[in-house]
Amino acid sequence: MSKKQQPIMKTVIIDDNLTDIEELQKALEKYPQFEIIGTYRTGKAGMAALEKLKPDVAFLDIELPDMLGLEIIEGLSQEVVINCRFVAYSAYAGHVLESFRKHAFDFLLKPIDPSDLEGIIHRLTDAYSLKKSAEFGTAEKKPTDGNLLMFINSSDFRIMRLRDIGVFQFNNSLRLWEAIVANMEKPVRLKRSVNNKMLLSLGTEMIQVHQRYIVNIHYLSQVTDNICWFYPPFENIDYVRIGITYRRHLLEKFCCL
Q: What would the pLDDT profile of 179-189 be if each residue is shown by its tens digit?
């Protein structure tokens, strides 16, 4: 992607150390896709700025004078959390797992290693480009073997294949998406930053049938009274309904006889 084609991501930095802020600002100067719209020295000021400015990216120091940086994410509105990608950074590598538990997009260790930062920049740019493409209906549908990393609980994760997923469902009480995976008793909770457009962009086999459900059409066997029924190993799922607004889109996926 050329510089002219790169999306501009509004970015804030929240860090109580002015030297670290200046170092990160300088490091980001070589990446024209980032526009730093504010820097903040306390968690309270950073949280207020995030709610007001609604940036695309936030570099978030974990140890702030008035609160833990990761607590900021929990205190924000769902809209901000979904639309902003948080890069937690710290001089202590032991914060890595905790950061991902709190739904950080990535982790950066201080002092900043340019190669580590470059890797994060590429991941942020790719994720943001995918998001914008999905919003405008231009997301590229590419075949995938679908190797996905999903958290099983707060400390463990598992690599699984997209073809092993039968349904993505939105958990209203937890306000996040979950995956129903073959040979797993419980749904796998996804990061709060994941939305339906990201899930649909995983592959053409994923199609939304309801505001709360995205199904893998390879497992869809029939629809009766607007209820989806599935092939094994998902034959026991009997609660996925098709919404009226999604029915036509589903029919377009098949050759009707």
A: 999 888 888 88
